Inverse folding.
């Protein structure tokens, strides 16, 4: 009977995952993904898994960055398969919406492609009660610049050219600036259809940081989550931009690499001034992220990335997605589940699977501090 009950609970958890996934896909703009709490069993449930479920129980709601959605899907699937009676519901909306939900106290943690601003930290003290929001780097990877150009399967751009394209200063694919970087490539006399995010997005902010640092003369905008430049076309979420690039000939847009991989979208190699253009790969992104320094204080582990690196093979247009949690003052009913789930995400196993989806693991030295901080949450 015990075995049958265990199997029923396992089926319930997996069924809840399917429902959760459907909700994420159909309600990207909403945090209203509520469902009834599943029964708690706690503890390790599978001998083959290294996941420690601890005292995790019930439902944990989270929301934010769509750039980390594919990583989160993998983590949630593995975690819920190991921890019967626990439901993790991550609403892939945007970094901005995730932080708002976190500061309103409606989610256990938020995903953001940019570290909290001082005013967001101040706001977080209302929901964290005894503490404040902190940034835990959990997912790294390249921001891929995907394009759809019939007859062109290899394309190189540099930061100034990208800046002019997304600022609609370069309007045709056969512009001399693009041709100069692509000797021997037959570029069509076709209008460029540049897509950007319609909602506040940490991915947008990371693109802005890169363009501002690597092409300061051509990108004069502040690096904000809201798209700053005039013109272009907007789409919702990384998935929305990827879908538009996939179907529109002449399109270009930005999203994390797994969207390009899953939909077979061609990506731009970036000329950084090194011996060869850097391709958007997990390995090349890791080369850039490895040089990051922790700029946060206390338990905050926000990173300072070098967007102007010329290290051999390093792909400079990278992002790090943070899980935003309270250092102290987390809700008692979800604290154990938050700690258990994020401990798995930061574990060796959790980080290893990132490369399968086009992400880059967080460097080991930084990740060790993430694990220590997760363990100390209260």
């Amino acid at each position: 009977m015990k075995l049958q009950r265990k199997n029923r609970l396992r089926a319930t958890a997996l069924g809840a995952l399917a429902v959760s996934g459907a909700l994420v896909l159909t309600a990207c703009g909403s945090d209203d993904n509520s469902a009834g709490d599943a029964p708690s069993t706690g503890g390790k449930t599978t001998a083959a898994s290294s996941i420690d479920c601890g005292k995790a129980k019930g439902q944990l709601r989270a929301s934010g960055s769509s750039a980390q959605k594919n990583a989160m899907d993998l983590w949630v699937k593995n975690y819920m398969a190991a921890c019967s009676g626990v439901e993790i519901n991550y609403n892939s909306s945007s970094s901005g919406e995730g932080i708002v939900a976190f500061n309103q106290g409606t989610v256990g943690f938020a995903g953001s492609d940019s570290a909290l601003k001082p005013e967001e930290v101040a706001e977080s003290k209302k929901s964290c009660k005894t503490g404040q929001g902190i940034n835990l780097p959990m997912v790294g990877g390249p921001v891929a610049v995907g394009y759809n150009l019939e007859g062109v399967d290899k394309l190189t751009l540099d930061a100034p050219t990208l800046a002019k394209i997304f600022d609609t200063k370069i309007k045709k694919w056969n512009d001399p600036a693009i041709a100069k970087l692509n000797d021997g490539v037959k570029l069509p006399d076709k209008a460029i259809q540049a897509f950007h995010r319609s909602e506040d997005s940490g991915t947008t902010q990371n693109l802005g940081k890169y363009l501002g640092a690597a092409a300061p003369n051509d990108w004069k905008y502040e690096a904000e989550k809201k798209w700053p430049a005039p013109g272009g076309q907007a789409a919702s979420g990384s998935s929305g931009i990827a879908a538009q690039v996939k179907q529109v000939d002449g399109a270009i847009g930005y999203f994390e690499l797994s969207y390009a991989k899953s939909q077979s979208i061609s990506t731009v190699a970036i000329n950084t001034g090194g011996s060869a253009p850097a391709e958007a790969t997990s390995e090349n992104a890791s080369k850039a992220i490895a040089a990051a320094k922790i700029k946060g204080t206390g338990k905050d582990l926000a990173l300072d990335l070098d967007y102007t690196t010329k290290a051999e093979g390093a792909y400079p247009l990278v992002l790090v997605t943070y899980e935003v949690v309270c250092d102290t003052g987390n809700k008692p009913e979800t604290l154990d589940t938050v700690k258990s789930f994020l401990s798995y995400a930061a574990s060796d196993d959790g980080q290893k699977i990132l490369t399968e989806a086009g992400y880059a693991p967080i460097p080991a030295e930084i990740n060790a501090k993430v694990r220590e901080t997760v363990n100390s949450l209260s």
User: Anything to note?
Assistant: The two ends are 37 Å apart (CA to CA). Residues 2-141+322-376 form a domain with the D-Maltodextrin-Binding Protein; domain 2 fold (CATH 3.40.190.10).
